[in-house]
Specification:
Blueprint: H1 4-25, H2 28-32, E1 35-42, E2 49-50, H3 51-61, E3 68-81, E4 84-96, E5 104-117, E6 120-128
Parallel strand pairs: 1-6
Antiparallel strand pairs: 1-2, 3-4, 4-5, 5-6
Length: 136
């Protein structure tokens, strides 16, 4: 019997890769298409962020005077249960001002809950514990 979760895991890993590439490219529409309408982001020290707030932040970052973003996600685990899944990863994000050296680097772990909507995996909840880099 084939492992049906293997296909789901591959799709989820592809979603994360697409998210990272679209964020780096400043492709707001592509990033927004990867999340559910009721998505919630949890970030330390801030109130929960909904989809409209996230989109407003992305659009502000996509402006010519905003910093560019690059990052790396190292997925540690993916678990699928029906139309729900979760993953946790180690994430590193670097923000660079236009024409400048890297200004801000954040790293840490994330816990992401995904939901299958219309046959596609989408990000439904995300909690990140990103902070300043830790000494080795």
């Amino acid at each position: 019997m084939a492992d049906t979760n293997a296909g789901d895991e591959a799709q989820i890993r592809a979603l994360v890769a697409t998210w990272m590439a679209a964020t780096k490219a400043g492709d707001v529409a592509a990033v927004m298409d990867l999340m559910t309408d009721d998505v919630v982001f949890l970030v330390p020290g801030r109130p929960p962020m909904r989809k409209a707030d996230f989109e407003a932040g992305l659009r502000a970052q996509a402006g010519g005077s905003a910093p560019s973003f690059d990052g790396r996600s190292d997925i540690q685990e993916v678990q699928v249960a029906g139309d729900w899944a979760f993953l946790w990863s180690r994430l590193e994000v670097v923000a660079t001002p236009p024409g400048g050296a890297p200004r801000m680097r954040r790293e840490g772990h994330t816990l992401t809950v995904l939901r299958r909507v219309g046959g596609r995996w989408k990000l439904a909840r995300d909690a990140n514990l990103l902070g300043p880099p830790q000494a080795a």
